Amino acid sequence: MMENLAKASLEAEILDLKTMYGHKKTFQTVYEIYSARYQYSNTGYSIEIHEAVSKRLLDYGGSKTLLTQLLDEEQQRELEREQEAEEERQQVRPIAAVPCEPILHHEIMNLCKIQDPILNLSHLPNVFCPITDAFIGTTFYRESQPGCWQENLWITTEFKRVIQTKGESLDPFLRPPRWILIYRNQHIIFLSPYEANELMGRLQYLYHKSPSQKLMQTTLRLLLPRTRRDQSTLINARTLTIPPLISSDPEIPDYSIPIEILVALFAFNGTIYFENKREQDAYCKFLGLCLKPRNEIETNAFDKGWISIDGFVENLDDRKQLQLDQCRFISNSLGFIRKLTENRNQAHAPLSSHVGSIIINAIKLPIE
Fold first, then answer.
1. Cβ neighbours around 310 below 10 Å, total
2. Nearest to 328 by CA among 154, 156, 182, 146
3. What residue ranges of the chain have pLDDT lower than 50?
């Protein structure tokens, strides 16, 4: 008896494919699959339940067919893995991007020549471009409204050169704006790290050689996006500029970027928190927004239709009435700011952030 039991428990050393994987897969309806499994399992369910289930499947199962086989548990698991492999689709990935070789134009180094006349940047289009040229090749270039930003905001052609393009979108390859050069306290130029590194050494050399008032009017600065409430952007930190603005000479000016320009830089680099209410108000004016909470005059303007649901004021006369005439954008730029902020931070701006609340909920959060 024990020998017969042992023989009955043995598995064949060689299994054919039909035994291992079952017969050829066929398409069947849900009702047909249930009926076959009911007969195969022979679990002894009552006929009334079987008939009720069958009727439901016939009524509601429809004509959709599925691949089916009657397999034991181990075979089913193995087959499921095989089916998953069959159903995988090879994801079409873009061709590996080729980075551009860095170039240093001699005009970049000429920015340090303090004895020469100030350069006319608009006459050097091969080296300096308006700030919105940074978005050329992206899906939101037109939404950036070229020509509506401040005229003294620039990027270098090297700043926008990241990869050798072959017609693909440059959304994933936007260079993070980290280094800026304040040129003669008039122009703000975004630089590539390569250019910043070259200028850093030159400015340091000139500073240690002979510090002067003219030299202090051209400074290299670091600009960080404020992605946390207590984070510093470092842009107006006097000890971290190159050369440092810590001279005891009263004739050397201390230049801080005006708030109207600063909030434009915040929008450009993806800042989502403000240091104080003044920055928040200037940011809203830069975008032409009149948001909640509103005073009585602003509430009346909203009731008259001057202010849209998202807070944008389009009419120029209405902007003057609401003291939003600093806004340079012709049309609503909130869609562009949402996309740019998401691109810079690789995530949506959280609703708990100052910028997230502005561009999504049209509400200014209190700032302590």
1. 15
2. 146
3. none
How many other C-beta atoms lie within 10 A of the C-beta of residue 298? 20
Residue where the block lists tokens 């195969």: 40
> 3-state SS of the chain: helix, strand, coil percent to 5?
40, 10, 45
Query: Rg for the chain (alpha carbons), in Å?
Result: 33
For 220, phi then psi, to 5°, come to: -95, 130
Residue 193: cis peptide before it, omega within 30 degrees of 0: no
Please tell me the distance from the alpha carbon of residue 234 to that of residue 241, in angstroms, as a whole number.
9
Report yes or no: 255 and 219 within 8 Å, Cβ to Cβ. yes
In angstroms, rounded to a whole number, what is the distance separating the alpha carbons of residues 309 and 315?
15
d(CA 288, CA 282): 10
Which pair of tokens denotes residue 80? 């499921």
**How do beta strands 187-191 and 153-156 pair?**
parallel
* CB contact set of 324 (below 8 Å; sequence gap of 6+): 285, 288, 289, 290, 313
- Between the two ends of the chain, the Cα-to-Cα distance in Å is 87
CA 182 from centre of chain: 27
**pLDDT computed for residue 15 by the predictor:** 63
Q: What is the pLDDT of residue 77?
A: 56
Rounded to two decimals, what is the model's pTM?
0.73
Helix (H) or strand (E) holding 284: helix 277-287
Where do we find the tokens 């400074």?
A: 219
